[in-house]
Amino acid sequence: MTNAKNMSALVVEDDPIVAMATEEILRSEGYDPVVICASASAAVECLVTLAPRVLVLDTGLADRDDGWSIAELVRETVSPRPKLLFVTGSPEAIPSDIAKLGTVLAKPCTEEDFRRALRAT
Length: 121
Description:
alpha/beta, 121 residues, 5 strands, 38% helix
């Protein structure tokens, strides 16, 4: 379990089953609160109020094909920057400079791979 003062997490995922499974893993790792946003627009609003320690980002969202743009926004405006985990079916679509901001996991990823990426510094 990670030890940190701010243990909030933001999950940007439009598949409710994947979102709930991700939330369960994050909670078991000590993250609380865990907020789930199903769209990029909702995620942008949450970023301001939540200031998450970790951001789990699906890049193919119902309202945007470039969900990775949220990571670009985080890079430019959020401090301190949260740990970024891109969990996506299209890892090749993420621009390389954005992918370098975090860890990219291709869907479907195993729970073990997700936990390992979450725990990495």
